[in-house]
Specification:
Strand order of the largest sheet: 2-1-3-4-5-10
Order of helices and strands: EHEHEHHEHEEHEEEHEEHEHH
CATH class of the largest domain: Alpha Beta
Strand content: 15-25%
Number of helices: 10
Helix content: 25-40%
Largest sheet: 6 strands, parallel
Oligomer: single chain
Length: 286
């Protein structure tokens, strides 16, 4: 099989590339970085994908600095929505299946239980609007495409561990814990952080099993808050600092986040609990 991965320098794209190298060494993988392939340049994307002739195109490219997106509106929609369409359309024209990585932030968080794939999006932020639009454009272009919604990604190819990486929440908190700092953390947003080492095999299984096109929710299982995650990291790291709960209003971030971003995986096998995923991840950091 031949796999083309957009967003090659990012933590998720790097996890995909490493997974195929380790578990499917016979497969050919091309994973251009943003500098090598801008997903908003339709002719270049079409030419690259047509030249490689892949069986599967995975689009992890995204502008996901949620607060920055509030002021970088044109860039956000170009990369996330238009870029998502460009890649999916190029894959379809090349006869390849495509997968797009989306987010639980497409929902407004008003639901009291986890969101299912059939629930209607109602995004709150510019970032979330761009991802919701991307989903519509991609499925209109190619109903056989896979849209994978997930949340709170962390993985071994993030931040200081990857060239040009911006880090992830877990690494940020771990740095604070190891320096003994106190930390204020939002406690009223329900979330399930997701380990890329668990997410990627689940995504690949979709392709290998030729699952029907459409929307899939894939996250680690269980539910928590960023405050509880930070407390767990401090506990595992044996940190001397204190994690203090604050509200979303106290944080006063530029972009609104849903109070409930939980996703339920009703179409696919359940992934390991977030506590187990976090423990495995930190075992490689401590």
């Amino acid at each position: 099989m031949k796999i083309f991965i957009c967003g090659g320098a990012g933590q998720l794209a790097s996890e995909f590339a490493d997974f195929f190298k380790t578990h499917h060494p016979e497969d050919a993988v091309r994973a251009p970085t943003y500098e090598e392939l801008d997903v908003t340049k339709s002719k270049e994307v079409q030419a690259e994908i047509a030249d490689f002739r892949p069986d599967l195109v995975i689009n992890t490219a995204a502008y996901h600095k949620v607060d920055e997106c509030e002021t970088q509106i044109e860039r956000t929609f170009l990369v996330n929505a238009f870029g998502g369409f460009v890649v999916a359309n190029a894959a379809r024209e090349a006869g390849a299946k495509s997968m797009y990585i989306s987010t639980g932030f497409v929902f407004d968080g008003s639901k009291s239980v986890p969101y299912e794939e059939s629930d209607s999006p109602n995004p709150l932020s510019i970032y979330a609007h761009s991802k919701a639009l991307a989903e519509k454009l991609i499925l209109a272009c190619d109903p056989a495409a896979w849209i994978v919604r997930t949340n709170g990604l962390f993985g071994r190819f993030s931040g200081k561990h990857t060239k040009g990486g911006a880090g992830n929440f877990i690494d940020f908190v771990l740095t604070k814990a190891q320096s003994g700092e106190d930390l204020d953390m939002v406690a009223d947003q329900r979330i399930t952080p997701t380990f890329t080492a668990d997410l990627v095999p689940a995504c690949v299984a979709l392709a290998l099993e030729q699952a029907p096109g459409g929307i899939y929710h894939l996250t680690n299982s269980g539910e928590t808050s960023w405050f509880e995650v930070a407390k767990k990291i401090y506990e595992i790291a044996g940190a001397e600092g204190t994690v203090r709960p604050i509200t979303s209003e106290q944080r006063n971030a530029p972009a609104r986040r849903p109070k409930n971003a939980l996703l339920t995986n009703i179409k696919r096998p359940v992934l390991p609990r977030w506590e187990d995923a976090l423990t495995r991840y930190l075992a490689g950091r401590l």
